[in-house]
């Protein structure tokens, strides 16, 4: 019984982890059709923000929950102004430009902080006991944050004027523009928000993974597979993709081992995209956000 | 070697082709030392300190008047964690620069990419990384430690300390796979039991399911051969789940990329590892070396590990051999190296083993406390016993192979 609970907990955590690293990418891709290959590096910058801030004596919660999204969000806005906005509608060009950006960011961070970075941050919460098993309290916190984050993004898109304008702009930029919406500003804010969500995710993961200039590469593939499998809807798609792929990965990793777990995730994604080329939300929940 | 017409033609052509180059070299008169390491990309956590110590070795050699009255000229190539650059730069170093020696490679894959090239160009090759053992190549000197030197020491030490039931986690490529086999062998030899072995692709960052399995299996200890930045997550998540205090960890890889600095003190306290070098190695050469390094790079210099120290010692072994041979040409230098040459380095005496072109060296067991390794036991002059099982360059010098299974069969492992 304890084992079942412990495994289920890890399964949910695996899903939340996938959802957390993918959400920022989903916002940028789903809303703007921009494929951001520097997504992994935005996660990495979130992690570095937390490391630098805590080394400077900032409280870890403030560093993770406020500074990381703020810093990466601002970087996102700058990137959008300097790079992305010239390339709207040119998917291959944005792909190349953001890939270049990814290499640039890795190079910059390496030259500033060195190839490896000393960190002293550890997960700030205790241990949860489940009979013979134990899990990190911080993992439970991450699951909670992921749920709250999804609700917050949903509320922003559905209930605020900003969300309405943003959704309108994404559906029909010309009409929005004719109605007096400054579409360039909407794009900028959306990209910034996507980057901020990514920065938050990177900051939150800093205490449980290594913070290295090249750590983004380990996230980017999984985030993309999740978003593409999920389909066009930002929230429903990311959630569905994470649950399906994270679930399969977790179950197979527990039964057989991590290698087969990764293989199972990729096989599931391939089969899924063969059957549903537009992702899960291309077929189901099509009206959802 | 029998002299066939083809050999004769190739030999004379080579002499004819190299003759102008030799004249060209006489003008600059420098002895050329090429280094190819990953200074960027995913492997730079290993490559950057190795490059620093390589530079320092060449500076030290030149400060002492160079070799044979000539200056040693260092050319460094950054392979950017990409195998294809290794091949390209190895060709450039051997054929273009006409380097007298090439010190290169971090992963076994990079070594295997360039070893045949350097053998073909008859360019002396040093591989200064700890690895899974098994290279048997007349032209290639492997100065790093192998499993029989380190795993054989850390497994019994940890089992005496913690108990007999072992759970192995390892990286899913040849180093991890082969090392895990050696671990199982040494666990069995010491009367222990391996409960499970798990392999992880290099980009896995979520170790939750494995931590559950370890909790289910209830071993006395976990032995890790995890590799790279992503796998650092294992140690963090393991500690976060409160496991490190209950089931301790021994490792053959933790620390070689200075991982102890990537996690906080309490996430690493008590981890045990074994290498050919820790900074605490107690000898005057080491003390002097670290002082000079600090003076050169400042107090925030990288922590020295086996890879970095062996890069220095590898360069110095080569320099000693050049001095002994009285020339920088390949064949006499190889002869000098294989005569049982010893260099007294920061890790202690390092001696070339002529049977394998590997090194006999001191081996240390360290315990991590507050991000610093404290040496708890040391073993003098340990031979590369695994590679010795399958490789004999004395009996048959004409070899240039990588025995992938590295004596596992000879040691009685399936």
UniProtKB/TrEMBL annotation, chain A:
GO terms for biological process: amino acid transport. GO terms for molecular function: transmembrane transporter activity. Signal peptide: none annotated. Keywords: Amino-acid transport, Cell membrane, Membrane, Transmembrane, Transmembrane helix, Transport. Its main location: membrane. It comes from the Bacteria. InterPro entries: ABC_transp_permease, BCAA_transport_permease. The chain crosses the membrane at residues 6-29, 60-84, 96-118, 138-157, 232-254, 260-277. The keyword Transmembrane applies. One of its GO terms (cellular component) is plasma membrane. It is a multi-pass membrane protein. It is found in: Cell membrane. Belongs to the binding-protein-dependent transport system permease family. LivHM subfamily. This is Branched-chain amino acid ABC transporter permease. It comes from Sulfitobacter sediminilitoris.
From TrEMBL, chain B:
Residues 31-369 form the Leucine-binding protein domain. InterPro entries: Leu-bd, Leu_Ile_Val-bd, Peripla_BP_I, TAT_signal. Gene3D superfamilies: 3.40.50.2300. Keywords: Amino-acid transport, Signal, Transport. One of its GO terms (biological process) is amino acid transport. It holds the Pfam family Peripla_BP_6. Coiled coil: none annotated. Belongs to the leucine-binding protein family. This is Transporter substrate-binding protein. It comes from Sulfitobacter sediminilitoris. The lineage of its organism: Bacteria, Pseudomonadati, Pseudomonadota, Alphaproteobacteria, Rhodobacterales.
């Amino acid at each position: 019984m304890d084992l079942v609970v412990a495994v289920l907990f890890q399964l949910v955590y695996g899903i939340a982890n996938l959802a957390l690293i993918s959400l920022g990418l989903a916002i940028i891709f789903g809303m703007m059709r921009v494929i951001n290959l520097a997504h992994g590096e935005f996660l990495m910058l979130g992690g570095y923000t937390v490391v630098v801030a805590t080394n400077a004596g900032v409280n870890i919660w403030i560093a993770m929950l406020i500074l990381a999204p703020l810093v990466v969000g601002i970087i996102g806005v700058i990137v959008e102004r300097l790079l992305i906005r010239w390339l709207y509608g040119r998917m291959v060009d944005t792909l190349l430009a953001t890939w270049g950006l990814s290499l640039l960011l890795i190079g910059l961070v390496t030259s500033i902080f060195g190839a490896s970075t000393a960190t002293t941050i550890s997960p700030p919460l205790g241990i949860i006991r489940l009979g013979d098993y134990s899990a990190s309290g911080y993992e439970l916190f991450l699951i909670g944050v992921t749920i709250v984050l999804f609700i917050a993004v949903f509320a922003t898109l559905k209930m605020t004027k900003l969300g309405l304008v943003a959704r309108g702009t994404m559906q029909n930029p010309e009409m929005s523009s004719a109605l007096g919406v400054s579409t360039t500003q909407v794009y900028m804010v959306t990209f910034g928000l996507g980057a901020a969500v990514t920065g938050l995710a990177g900051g939150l993961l800093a205490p449980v993974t290594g913070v290295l200039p090249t750590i983004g590469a380990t996230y980017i593939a999984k985030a993309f597979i999740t978003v593409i499998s999920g389909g066009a809807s930002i929230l429903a798609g990311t959630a569905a993709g994470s649950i399906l792929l994270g679930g399969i990965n977790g179950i197979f990793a527990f039964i057989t081992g991590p290698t087969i777990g990764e293989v199972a995730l990729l096989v599931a994604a391939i089969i899924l995209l063969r059957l549903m080329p537009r992702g899960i939300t291309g077929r189901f929940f099509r009206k959802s956000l | 070697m029998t002299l066939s017409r083809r050999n004769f033609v190739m030999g004379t052509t080579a002499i004819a082709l190299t003759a102008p180059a030799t004249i060209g070299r006489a003008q600059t008169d420098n002895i050329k030392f090429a280094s190819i390491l990953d200074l960027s990309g995913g492997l730079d956590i290993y490559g950057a300190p190795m490059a620093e110590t390589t530079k320092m070795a060449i500076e030290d050699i030149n400060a002492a008047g160079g070799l044979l009255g000539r200056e040693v000229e260092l050319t460094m190539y950054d392979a950017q964690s990409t195998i294809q650059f290794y091949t390209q730069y190895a060709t450039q170093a051997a054929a273009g620069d006409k380097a007298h020696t090439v010190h290169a490679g971090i992963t076994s894959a990079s070594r295997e990419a360039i070893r045949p090239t350097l053998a073909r160009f008859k360019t002396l090759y040093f591989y200064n990384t700890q690895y899974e053992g098994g290279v048997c190549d007349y032209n290639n000197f492997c100065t790093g430690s192998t499993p029989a030197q380190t795993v054989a020491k850390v497994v019994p030490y940890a089992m005496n300390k913690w108990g007999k039931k072992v759970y192995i986690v390892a990286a899913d490529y040849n180093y991890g796979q082969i090392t895990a086999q050696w671990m199982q062998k040494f666990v069995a030899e010491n009367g222990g039991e391996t409960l499970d072995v798990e392999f992880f692709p290099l980009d896995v960052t979520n170790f939750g399911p494995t931590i559950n399995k370890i909790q289910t299996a209830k071993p006395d200890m976990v032995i890790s051969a995890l590799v790279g930045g992503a796998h650092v997550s294992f140690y963090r998540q393991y500690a976060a789940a409160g496991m490190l205090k209950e089931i301790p960890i021994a490792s053959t890889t933790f620390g070689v990329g200075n991982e102890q600095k990537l996690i906080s003190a309490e996430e690493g306290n008590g981890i045990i590892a074994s290498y050919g070098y820790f900074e605490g190695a107690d000898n005057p050469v080491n003390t002097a070396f670290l002082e000079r390094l600090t003076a050169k790079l400042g107090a925030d210099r990288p922590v020295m590990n086996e890879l970095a120290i062996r890069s220095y010692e590898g360069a110095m072994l080569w320099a000693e051999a050049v001095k002994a041979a009285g020339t920088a040409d390949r064949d006499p230098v190889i002869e000098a190296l294989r005569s049982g040459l010893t260099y007294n380095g920061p890790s202690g005496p390092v001696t070339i083993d002529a049977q394998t072109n590997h090194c006999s060296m001191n081996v240390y067991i360290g315990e991590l406390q507050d991000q610093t390794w404290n040496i708890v036991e040391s073993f003098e002059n340990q031979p590369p016993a695994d590679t010795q099982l399958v490789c004999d360059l004395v009996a048959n010098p004409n070899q240039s192979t990588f025995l992938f299974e590295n004596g596992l069969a000879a040691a009685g492992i399936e």
